[in-house]
Amino acid sequence: MHEYPRRRSAARWLAILTMFAAPFAAVADTSTTPPSGYLKASGKDIVDGSGRPVILRGMGLGGWMLQEGYMLGLGNLGQQHVIRREIEALIGAERAEAFYTAWRANHVREDDIRALAEWGYNSVRLPMHFNLFTLPVDEEPVPGEHTWLETGFALTDQLLAWCKKYGLYLILDLHAAPGGQGNDFAISDRDPASPSLWDSDANRVKTIALWKKVAARYKDEPMIGGYDLINEPNWGFADRDDKHGCAETDNRPLRQLQMDITAAIREVDRRHMVIVEGNCWGNNYAGVLPPWDDNLVLSFHKYWNNNDRDSIAGVLELRERYDVPVWLGESGENSNAWFADAIELVEGAGIGWNFWPLKKLGFNNPLEVRPNPGFQALVRYWKGEGPRPSPQAAHQALMQLARHDIRFENAVVHRDVVDAMLRQPHDAVARPFTAHSLTAAGLAIGAVDYDLGRPGTAYGDDDIANYHVSTGGERTPWNRGRHYRNDGVDIATGADGTPLVELDQGEWLQYTVAVREPGTYQLQLHVEEGAGAPSLTLSLNGGAPIELLPDDGPVRYAAPVDLEPGNQVLKVRAQRGTARLAGLRLSALPR
């Protein structure tokens, strides 16, 4: 079996990725123009200090100040306080605190922000956990007073300094409000045994006071893009059985709290945008409007639904009726095809966006954390699938995760994800994922290194995205192997660790090869042995398909091809059956 190129770490990809920054940044004038002054709402647009419309293109820093279980492979644990309790049970409270200190020091660093800027993003959204800025109500030494903690402010100050250095707007988002703002517990670290934000006057008072403190600290910072007051409220005010508030028709408590927060902010800061969210994870604005401030933006969130005009018709109608800007404040957790379609849709309507998250244990974000084997053993234990580790082994695994694994230079950069967000919505042309340069010495291509581009352009696959919210069905996978790339191409792992593409009948992949030395070459496809013998074809530059015949045993298919100098496009298709394709090899034939 030939060796094929494999995934590289972030540090090795960074130089390559800077080559993509120029085409990404050139997709719209709003990205190429340096930031100028405070962002503000002007009619239906967000504009900068010079009055120029700005399309925000950003990533959310989920998992840094607030962990969610699924980002660590721990969906069964959910909330951060539950995860922390399990960590303390294994290694003790003191070591757990050391883990979280290291986590906060390494999860987001200057390299992460520099990379975002170089790739072409112009903003970041910071999900804040209130308990890094102030004590919970029930821990205050003096009831009714507010103890301010420097930890959260210091982290935010450092992040702001990096954003200013690299020209990114920083949007502050209260992701976990005191008490928790909904019945989706993980997103706000809510403990259902304690009073929620909506059950407690004291929690609401603390929320208002926190925002006033934040605004007073950052009122003179033009690179603070805005204040996102309450992330994804999801609460049934009139009917507690409507757990997430999607059927709510009044939302009076939500409107009142956001008005009270705005009033407190305006006592100290008249310049920054206030960003509000409706109920039902930010999308139900019934009773929340009309606007109460002249520098206000409506945020909506979009997940797992169709990318058509109907999917955003509601927010477009609100924008028109109230003459306010709207912003896609959170989206993501889908395939590259879905990302490109969603961004093309909203940017076509003059709406900016922020996707989620920049980094996690998972393949469908720009940066993927690859955890050490010890942490993987911990995950199996917490899921009830493995033995309890020793305190020393657990401590070592957690500290390696926090000090090493989550750092930018040790993460995997998913260039395909970045390309899908920043280039593909504006450029339908497929581009090489990796430079394939063919000389007389031949060329080996990993099957997974097919071209970058949208479905129908760079590849063809039956399942390209998850639309379960629109279809009412189950969550559907696009890449069933869930690694290497985030397209609708199924990638498995062979017995020797080689990534394999699984092509079902009718599915295809495209490879662009730069031919340096023209001639006749033998093309071989290396297919993992399996049940049956799939039928495979090759087409060159859109020409008629050539049948590839078994060669040198059942795991190779081959055909001679004449290649001219310059870029040549090869398309491999499974005509019948299923093929597990490891790679392609081109070898020069005698003249």
Give the oligomeric state: single chain
Count of helical stretches: 16
Structural class from helices and strands?
Answer: alpha/beta
Radius of gyration computed on alpha carbons: 26 Å
Which whole number gives the mean pLDDT? Answer: 93
Estimate what percentage of residues fall within beta strands: 15-25%
Going by CATH, the architecture of the largest domain would be Alpha-Beta Barrel
Shape: globular
Provide the number of structural domains.
2
Low-confidence stretches: 1-32
CATH fold descriptor of the largest domain: TIM Barrel
Largest sheet: 12 strands, mixed
What is the CATH top level name of the largest domain? Alpha Beta
What is the rounded distance between the termini?
Answer: 26 Å
Q: At the fourth CATH level, what is the homologous superfamily of the largest domain? A: Glycosidases
- Helix content class: 25-40%
> What's the number of extended β-strand segments?
25
Walk me through this protein's architecture.
The protein is an alpha/beta fold. The chain folds into two domains: 10-64 and 107-369 and 406-420, TIM Barrel (Alpha-Beta Barrel), CATH 3.20.20; 430-588, Galactose-binding domain-like (Jelly Rolls, Sandwich). It has 16 helices and 25 strands. The strands form four sheets. Strands 14, 15, 16, 17, 18, 19, 20, 21, 22, 23, 24 and 25 form a twelve-stranded mixed beta sheet that branches. Strand 22 (546-550) and strand 23 form a beta hairpin. Mean pLDDT is 93; it is low at 1-32.
